[in-house]
Amino acid sequence: MSVRGRCAKVLPSELNKVCPERGDDPATHPRKMSDFEVVPNLQQSSSSVSKSRRKAHFPTGSNEKENLISWIPENIRKKECTYFVESSQTSDSGRIVCECGYLREQHLDDGAKPPIFLGKEWDPSRHIQEMPTDAFGDIRFTGLGQKTGKYVRVSSDTPPRVIYHLMTQHWGLDAPNLLISVTGGAKNFIMKPRLKNIFRQGLVKVAQTTGAWIITGGSHAGVMKQVGEAVRDFILSCSHKEGEIVTIGIATWGTVYNRESLVCPMGGFPAEYVLDEENQGSLSCLDSNHSHFILVDDGTHGRYGVEIPLRTKLEKFISEQTKVKGGVAIKIPIVCVVLEGGPGTLDTIYNAITNGTPCVIVEGSGRVADVIAQVANLPVSKITIALIQQKLSVLFHDTYELFTEGKLVEWTKKIQDIVRSRQLLTIFREGKYGQQDVDVAILQALFKASRNQDHFGRENWDHQLKLAVAWNRVDIARSEIFTDDHDWKPTDLHPVMAAALISNKPEFVKLFLEQGVRLKDFVTWDTLVYLYDNLAPSCLFHSKLQKVLLEEREHTAGSKMPRLQLHHVSQVLRELLGCSTQPLYPKPKHTERPRLSIPVPHIKLNVQGSSLRSLYKRSAGRVTFTMDPVRDLLIWAVVQNRRELAEIIWAQSQDCMAAALACSKILKELAKEEEDTDTTDDMLALAEQFEHKAIGVFTDCYRKDEERAQKLLTRVSEAWGKTTCLQLALEAKNMNFVSHGGVQAFLTKVWWGKLCVDNGLWRVITCMLFFPLLYTNLITFREKRLQPMGCLTRLRAFFTAPVVIFLMNILSYFTFLLLFAYVLMVDFQPTPSWREYLIYFWLFSLVCEETRQLLYDPDGLGLVKMASLYIKDFWNKLDICAILVFIAGLTCRLIPSTLYPGRIILSLAFIIFCLRLMHIFTVSKTLGPKIIIVKRMMKDVFFFLFLLAVWVVSFGVAKQAILIHNEERVEWLFRGVVYHSYLTIFGQIPSYIDGVNFNIDQCSPNGTDPYKPKCPETNADNKKPIFPEWLTVILLCLYLLFTNILLLNLLIAMFNYTFQQVQEHTDQIWKFQRHDLIEEYHGRPPAPPPLILLNHLQLLVRRGLLRRPATHHKLKEKLEKNEEAALLSWEMFLKENYLQHQQCQEKENTEQMIRDIAQRVDVLAELLDLDRVKRTGVVEQRLGSLEDQVHQSAQALRWMMQALRGNGFSSGEDLPAVGSSRALDFKEADLEGKAEERRPPYHVLARNLLYPGSHTLRFPVPDEKVPWEVDFPLYDPPAYSADHKDMAVQDPFSLSLESLLKINYNTMDGLIDRQSFHGLYAVRDGLPLNPMGRTGLRGRGRLHCFGPNHALHPVVTRWRRNLDGSIIRKSLKKMLEVLVAQYPLSDVWALPGGSLEPGETLPLKLKWILRREFWPQFQNLLKQGTEVHRGYLDDPRNTDNAWVETVAVSVHFDNQNDVEMKRLNSFLQGCDPELCIRWQVLDKRIPLHANHKELLHKVSTLLGAYY
Length: 1507
Known about the structure:
By secondary structure, the protein is α/β, with parallel strands linked by helices.
């Protein structure tokens, strides 16, 4: 027996007993309920907050726990019984209980005392009171590992918005994209193993892929247990990140077993719960596989079903919320999934269908589900009481005796109403075509319901597409939305395209591109700003943009953060792409009108009004398009590291090779700053992938046409900041691309200039030394104009070739070094000789050349940027160092007193100049990589010296301290500690360290000799060393062991690793480094130093005096527009070939083939299983057909016998039909069902169980019991008549015979017309009978009069026309527009008409629409109109004794210039502002009352228009 938690004052000591983990913590300040009520319905919590709250499986932080402890008692209540009334029933243990079900001691202290209620009956509304809840927090299931969930005990009267706020804000749940309400049998039942697996897999799949919430009863039994086990199996088979499925159990608090362990006034964090099925008795345990529990308390114990009203309200509230994600807002859809079930389940299905909630019935699960599934395909007229009785006797064989005749009638009526709403009913049958999975059935049910829902125009299709995008189910979008039923314009897809991009749903982006969305139309300036505004906060690019905005705010000294614009994006992109590129998005001038006129960060696309769609409408004519929209979208995807999106968009790009290399550069730069290692690896992998794409496209281009492919390398790309593909590859250090054979062939061509590349090097050197040989055939040129022998340009072409310039510079540099060495060793006089002056002049030419390289700026980058680029080069640093050292030596050399130091410094400068020779060797394929190895090894040595210094210093200090006492000379301290210890590594061991070879003459005893070290500690008598020789020897051995063996071998291993690493990529590294040398000599003046000064003088005159622009020597080429367009088209064509080739290779891949074969085997196995199921059905069908044929044969024989018996060849009976009667029945059933959907045989709306505007329930009347002629002994309808105090004329609402006898039926009763259009109607006991049959309710309901209540419904129509005035057609029929109105306090549109007041000719509702002066003219229009209906109207207000009869008149304006129509429109514009009036396209899905749609159908038929 469970124990109730008390709500009396609880002392801290008592709290420690209940919640020991809380202790005496002070209570936090609670939030007031009034504060919460001001807040509107919250849609979803912040994503960042949700992520922080939902870690692992809901560990609660201290601050969040305190907020929860203070918020829940203030806003959520429980219920307690305050008065004990002894019940006739007893508890399970035989003890006396209260009417509420609890024992006396389980009541409050005041509950058992005789209060003012003494002697009165127990009344829940008075004897049960609300008070702050005492059960909430985290629930942990004992013995089941770390399964932890959230729980709360709530009152049955708790507002749904409070519970929703708790779930989304305090429990940290994201608002769902879908709500799945699972209902069915509450007790354990048996399902077929295959059906159980299909259901489990499909349910969790739809929940996981769509981000849905699953709501169940929460107990560990029946369908709730099936759902819990499905979630458990899914979590165990998936990773932790994928395994988060929100499963909410809504159960009755009074039926939960072991609930006393959940009671904790200050919250249980966690509360330990024991799942004990053996001892639960009539109660139920909570299911351990649910993640959240809402325990509904009404103050009673042991009563099931208490949670149903609150669960219904909560589901309805959630389904009315709007979730905004990725710029698209959707109403949260809800679907009901039914397994098995009993009477309560039928009520749940009926209520769901009545509320417009689609239901999925799983056939084969048993009981109610199977009853509905087996009759779902039958016409409603075939669903009779006898049929339902037969089904119940089979499927409810254990409890069939409990079904009374009244219950059978009620079940028949409810099942008929359920089946009548076929658009909301989906039957999942195992093996049904196109429905192999439950998840597909659930989503198809939602789409079917949405598609059949009434709507205006195309909003229904938009809603379906938004749902598919929110669920990320592109398969459903392909099969259900993008069909032949609706033509999608590309512009209609732009809003959802933006949502798919922001939500990172590449499959939808690909689908929208296939449907005709053009990125050039989609990407506008405003769209780009909107996309960058919606970057993920965790994205590194987002943080860099925020940093730029902060800097701008500080620069402008403003307090408000500036709005994000594209020039901010361009600023960050230039940092990533390098300064060799120009800004992609220019900063707008202050005088220009701002491009963005609407606040983009607040743009939302909701169901009613699409503000994001208006963004595109506004952008179409005003906002200028960016230069390359595909590039802009590609950058947006790449900076967020979205691989699939980037690949899809790159496939659309035109300048694809430059785009791939630029993306590689951006990703590599972002990877350097990214802190998360996984993200860094992903970025580098994607960068490498883009590099491979560029290589693949360039390879295909090079194979087709070498010359055009090389043009692609040097073409200036306007879209990518006026840079080139080659420059982008070099900036990104894409060695694979640069080392490509085509790139290297181009570099070789540049290296040889206008010379042929097959000229031998010895020929070039020979012609360089003896240039007259140029006019022989020794050297060949590429250009034909240089072939003639006497051409003077041959000389210029030869000496301007980079290879010749390089060789001449080598010769010049060697000459300089030889002359420098000669001066240093032979000719260094106090007064400089002419040779030395020549060296100074030579050095001056080198300084001038370095200055030219520093100032040479053809791209206009600026002096500062050029200086930074110049300093980055290692060889430039070496040049500067050599020149500065030389200048320092020269300065000392010119001063007589520092002549010798000057020579020393110049000698050091000579060393540095010699090291500069290594740059020359980089051109060699053999020596170039070795120089790279040396540079890498220098880094290894630098780090190795740190390790070596530890041992050297430690041994040196210890040795010095042991051997020598108080050495005060610093230079000798350095020698003893560092120098001698370092030399010891190479074998120069000090002689005095072991005392054997000690010689006192080699040292200074007192340390006064500056040329000798101080002697070790010696004996005063014989001058022998007294230091411990054994210790110094051990230290020396250990030192040599670690340094010579360990550290030196470590250095060798490091060198070997570096060598192997570089050696593997020797060819790539050399080819990559080769470019720098080629580019340097391609733009270098042809004359070598010191003659290069002539070129510098020429350059100075041209730039300084003549003001001519600098000649662009870089490897860039600006193409003409036509040539560039043709080149890019050719590149794009070959890119398509490359992508097709990649797809073919993927298909031919062995692993992919194995996966395809495995998938086919799985499909084949599934088809075999389905075939087995279908085969069983076919056998049953054939047996049924055989029975029918035997029955027909028997009928035929009987007919023949009767004919023979009559002595003739004819008979009064017709010849029985030959063939399968069952097949004919099926065909007839289909035809009848379709006809029945168009026109039901009996009134339907008048038999809805819940009477509108009241809480009165009708008596259930199945279709077969509607006619008064059919005997229905059980028929006992309730009576209801509303009192209309605002109406002057109304019949009495009491059914007393005296008041009824005053009414005259079938005639004019004063001003009231009680005559029916259907003739005389019967009157029984003073009450008229509805001519259409029973309705399940007596009285007049909300109608004013008994008998017929007359109404008038004018149907005002006109043709729908284009802008040019032509009539629009659909399916070859003209389309109509009809005048509809929405009245105050109504959510439904209706025809402008209604009930006629006694003595009036126009309805009151019609008078609201029209101004008074137009009433007579409208009456004339009605007289001229055509009557399309006169008679009974199936209205929900109809009863057995009162009904609505109407006259529908068609008023059609055939001419668009009709004067009466224009006058009507003018009077409509001046009508009541609370009314909504519009001309609406006439369609069968127009959202009107069902009976009004029948009238519209008749009008469209009359005019031959589309319906």
